[in-house]
Write a structure and sequence with these properties.
Blueprint (H helix, E strand, L loop, with lengths): L1 H22 L4 E10 L5 E8 L5 E8 L2 E7 L3 E2 L12 E9 L2 E8 L5 E7 L6 E7 L2 H9 L25 H8 L5 E6 L9 E2 L4 E2 H19 L4 E4 L9 H10 L4 E8 L9 E6 L5 H11 L1 H6 L8 H10 L1 H21 L4 E7 L11 E8 L3 H7 L2 H35 L1
Parallel strand pairs: 1-5, 10-13, 10-14, 14-17, 15-16
Antiparallel strand pairs: 1-2, 2-9, 3-4, 4-7, 6-7, 8-9, 11-12, 15-17
The structure holds zinc ion.
Zinc ion binds next to loops.
């Protein structure tokens, strides 16, 4: 009896101590970040000069040229932070102040390979990041087991939602009866003499952003989904006719077609991503975007605008219900990624009659990743960090869909073997 009550007291005290610990509200400053070469020549040390021990910290290396570091603290002041000069092996550091603390992305120069660890200094207050020279193979092993830090995850009010197809869904059955989900066609919009939308004052062109982001999406697929084949409609700055893009996708029996574009608007405040799949334009703004993206037809035909009629689209919708359902499903997964992960405003999933999506015998999407007419967004889309995040948002939607598809396949196979 007595032993029981002692145990109870200990338990209660333990719980109280826990509360006291997390309620500690000592002011913490991060005064300086410095980078120095190790005396043994094996690499570098990044020192975070803190004035008090933080709750915890985390380091991750999601790709060979990106190291992400996060300090968790409810009360970290970085207003007087002295940032380091960038040494030769660092291309850029992007700092992220968020609700959970403070972190940064370290972008490495090409050919710089490091294995990383983060640890307390002997004084127990500073946190050191050790960068040790490593081979490409070692770094590849590390990145294969690391996930991105999505800084938006650390902001309050981020929304997650979940919805999925069932294994019995007609669209899935149709896909299984075809080729499965093995070939993804990535289509960087415009190219060559067709720059797409242009921000003249910043010297930024849609065709360049679309190409860089498209190539990054393909790299992620190659790296993380090695059983999926990636086909590009263009891999460099060249003009490819819209009809040719569709032909490429059909010839390789693509299971998904993703066309990547950049939006523009008269209102320079407009920002955010829009994701389209083929169908009747359901809104006036979708019609505007559709007209612009289809206008390249003028360049090809040297004549008047070719527009898909409502009737053509209706016939298409009826004949391709399965592909449209899957297109919409992936579009919604992508919207989720843009909104809750990539920290971009999502302007929603929309339908429109894009020529480039027309007549494709596969699910097809057109993504407008942001507005080139908004200076902030234009700069973001042409930055290394922005392109990495946008490309990974597109990639993650594809990966999520592939996982859902594989799950439905297993369910069906189990059912068949049980019969
Ligand atoms: Zn475009």
């Amino acid at each position: 009896m007595e032993r029981m009550s002692i145990l109870a007291i200990l338990l209660v005290t333990g719980i109280l101590l826990l509360f006291v610990k997390t309620d500690t509200y000592a002011q913490q400053n991060l005064d300086r970040i410095s980078i120095s070469e190790r005396s043994d020549g094996k690499g570098f040390v990044i020192r975070n000069h803190l004035t008090a021990t933080p709750d915890s910290f985390k380091i991750t290396q999601p790709s060979s040229d990106l190291i992400q570091f996060m300090i968790y603290s409810s009360n970290l002041d970085v207003s007087d932070l002295t940032k380091p000069d960038l040494p030769g092996f660092v291309r850029n550091i992007e700092y992220q102040n968020n609700d959970a603390g403070f972190g940064y992305d370290i972008f490495l120069e090409e050919g710089s390979y490091f294995s990383t660890t983060a640890y307390h200094d002997r004084n127990g207050v500073h946190i050191l990041i050790g960068l040790e020279h490593a081979t490409r193979e070692v770094v590849d092993q590390i990145t294969a087991n690391s996930d991105f830090v999505y800084w938006y995850d650390y902001q309050e009010n981020n929304v997650e939602f979940d919805f999925r197809f069932s294994a019995d869904d007609d669209a899935f059955i149709q896909m299984r009866n075809n080729n499965g989900f093995n070939v993804i066609v990535i289509d960087p919009g415009h190219g060559g003499h067709d720059p797409g939308a242009v921000n003249r004052s910043l010297g930024i062109r849609e065709k360049d952003i679309a190409l860089t982001v498209a190539l990054k999406v393909g790299e992620y697929i190659n790296q993380y989904m090695p059983d999926v084949e990636v086909v590009y409609t263009r891999k460099d700055d060249r003009f490819v006719e819209l009809s040719r893009r569709g032909k490429i996708a059909s010839e390789v029996n693509g299971d998904l077609f993703i066309s990547i574009h950049v939006n523009s608007a008269r209102n320079s405040q407009a920002h955010g991503a829009e994701i389209y799949f083929l169908g009747l334009a359901r809104s006036a703004s979708a019609l505007e975007v559709m007209k612009r993206e289809n206008s390249v037809i003028d360049l090809e035909n040297g004549g008047g605008p070719t527009q898909l009629s409502e009737e053509e689209l209706l016939i298409f919708e009826l004949a391709n219900a399965g592909n449209i359902a899957i297109s919409e499903r992936i579009a919604m997964m992508m919207e989720d990624q843009f909104r809750s992960r990539a920290q971009r405003r999502s302007r929603g999933v929309k339908q429109a009659g894009f020529m480039v999506l027309w007549n494709l015998p596969m699910p097809a999407l057109l993504v407008e990743i942001g507005f080139i007419t908004n200076p902030n967004e234009a700069r973001y889309m042409s930055s290394e960090n922005g392109q990495t995040i946008l490309a990974s948002a597109i990639f993650r939607a594809i990966r999520d869909f592939k996982q859902e598809y594989d799950r439905s396949l297993r369910q069906t196979n189990n059912r068949v073997s049980n019969d």
